[in-house]
Amino acid sequence: MAKKETAHKARTVTGIEYGKRLVRIATLSVNRSGKISLKGLTQAHAPHGRRGVTEDLLAGRRAALKEALSKHPKDLGDVIVGVPREDVITRLVSLPSGDPEEVREMLFFDVERYLPFPPDEAEISYRIIEQIGANESRVLMVAARRNELYQIIEELDEAGLEPLRLDVDVHGCAYAFTRSEGERDGEPFAVFHLDNQSSLIGLIVDRKLRFSRTAPIATDDLESGSLGISFEKPPMDWTEDQNQWWAGLVRNLKRSITGFAHEPMGTMPKYVVFSGPGSEIPGLKDAIENEISIPVTQRLPINPGKSNEPLLFYSSPIGLALEEIHNTHHFNLVPEEIYHERAAARRKQFLVNSVILLIFNLLLLGGWVGHSVWNKKQLAGIYQSKILAIQPQIKDIDVIDKKLKVINQNIDRQNSAFKVLSDLFERTPDKVKITQLTFKKSDSVVMNLETYTGADMDAYVKILGDSPYFAGTIERGRLETKDLSRMRGEYDIPNYQQVTGTTAILRTNPKLQE
User: Fold this and answer.
1) 87 lies in a domain?
2) What torsion, rounded to 10 degrees, do the Cα atoms 253, 258, 259, 264 define?
3) Are residues 382 and 484 in the same domain?
4) pLDDT tens, position by position, 259-315
5) What HEC string does 85-119 produce?
6) Is residue 157 one of the residues assigned to a domain?
7) Does residue 182 come out as left (phi exceeding 0), alpha (psi in the -120 to 50 range) or beta?
8) Are residues 280 and 356 in the same domain?
9) pLDDT for position 338
10) Of 158, 185, 281, 323, which has the fewest CB atoms closer than 10 Å, so is most exposed?
C-alpha cells in the first residue's frame, strides 16, 4: 500500500509582541509537508519619553514598531498581534451548559459582573477551555477597552499592517511551550517570562492557559549600577537594593503560583518554564528553583535554525505565530466593525475594477460572433459612445446592484459575447479579482487573477466549471504569493495570490465538435 501523504497549506505567519516600550517580531513559515521554519526575529525599544505622558508613550511605541519593521524581513504573511497582558481583563468562569450557543448567551447576558468598565465600551472574546459533562463549561474570557484597541489598530495601519487577529502577549508565550520539545503531556506547569519592563506569569493546564498576571519585576532594573546581581556569590554579600529586587521576584512568583493553585479551577504546577531576557542571567534559574522548591526548566519554543537571536526573548511572538499556523485560535479582540469596514473597502475596490474590466473587454469582444473588421470597428465605436455616455452616471455609485442596473439600461445585453462575459463576472466572487482577460476567437478564455488565498482560487475554478459557456477541465494557472504588508494605497491587505494563465475552453471551440 502506498504511503498516504498529508498535504499542508504553505504560508508565512508573523507574530508581533506589541508592548508599550518594546516591540518584538517573529516570522515563521510552513511548507506543504508541514515543516515549520524560522524566517526572522527582530526587536526594537521605544525611545524614552516623559514619564507618565500618554502622547510620548504612543509616539515611542510607533517609533519602535517602525524601527522593528525596517530591520525585519519584508515578507510578513499573515500578521497576529499580541497586546500587553496588563491592558486586558481575564476571567475564568464556569457556566451551567455544554451547548456553545447557550454558553455564549449566558456569558454576554451577565458580562457586566466580570468587567470594571461598561460592557458597551468593551471588546470581548472567549474560549471554552473545558467541558464537564453535558451541563458545565469552563470559559476563559478576555476583555479590553474598545477605544484602546482602535488606537492600536490605527498605529498598525499607519505602519502598513492589517492583523488577522489581536490576541494577548501572554497567550502566545504560553502556547509556545505547550507544543515545544520537552513538554510533559498532561502535566500542569507555570510559565515565568522575566522581561525588560515587567514579567508574565501564567498557569497552563491540559495545554491551555487558565490564569495569568503581570508582575512588576524587570530585568532593566538589573542594568543600573546598584543592581548588578551576581549569583556566583552568596546572598549575604548582596547590597540592600539587590536583596529587595530578589525578594520582590520571589514574592511575586510564589504568590502567583499559590494564588493560581487556590483558585476554584486552579492547581499546583508540576514545574516552571523560565523564559525571557531574565532567563539569560547566569545562575538565576537554579536560584529560583531552590527558593520555590519546584523544578525550573528552560526549553526552546522552536528550532532556531540558523538564527543567532536569543529565542527565549521571543516566546510571545513565536507562540502567536505557531498558534495561527496550527489553526488553534484562542482569542480575537479586533472589533467586528473593523472587519465590516475592511470587507466594504475590498468590495468597493473589486467592484470598480470588475466594472472597468467588463466595459473595456466589451470593446475587445464585440466581434467575437463573426463580424467583419468594419463591423467590429463600428460595434466598438457604439460601445465606446455608450460607455462615455453613462460614465458620469455610474462613477459615484458604490452599490453594485445600482451600478449594474444603469449599465443594463444602456448596454445591449443580447450580444452573445456580452452574455459570456456577463456570466463570467456575475459568477466571480468578491474574493477574486480579474486583472486581465483575453478571448482567443471562439476558442477559450485566458485570465490573470488576484485572490486572497489558494483556497479561494480552488473554489473559483469550481465556479467557472458551472458556467454553461465553458466545457471540460478549467486549467488553474500558476499561483505566486505577493506580499503587500508594507505597502499603502491601492492595496489594503497583507498579501494575496497572483494567478496567471487560468484557462477555460469555450463550448464553441471547434475542437470540441470533432
Assistant:
1) no
2) 150
3) yes
4) 999 998 899 999 999 999 998 888 889 989 999 999 999 999 888 888 888 999 999
5) HHHCEEEEEEECCCCHHHHHHHHHHCHHHHCCCCH
6) no
7) left
8) no
9) 75
10) 185
